[in-house]
Amino acid sequence: xxxxxxxxxxxxxxxxxxxxxxxxxxxxxxxxxxxxxxxxxxxxxxxxxxxxxxxxxxxxxxxxxxxxxxxxxxxxxxxxxxxxxxxxxxxxxxxxxxxxxxxxxxxxxxxxxxxxxxxxxxxxxxxxxxxxxxxx
Length: 136
What we know:
With 136 residues, the chain is an alpha+beta fold. It contains 2 helices and 10 strands. The two termini are 30 Å apart.
């Protein structure tokens, strides 16, 4: 087991002893197991999966940083949303708005809109995953 703590500027998202954590880092998706070597990586928008025995906790994240040191994982991220916090209609509106800005915005607006679009697509992927699991 290892200790995992996940924080946004507004709240503690997760804290506890776990068997593994899988997270989206800039260089790709990584899985951290107990006694992992020390490691630091910037994170990208994506889905985090935390496993403890037969329990699976999942949530989407924005950009951030992952630290692993002495069997402790700390993740500091801009934002996080659990599955039950995702509202599909709001996500679809954000996706549409981002696509409009990408088509007509200034260079700075387009950069921010691309990030918003990425976050929206991640959130939609989580909703679709929940539907698949719920229908099984």
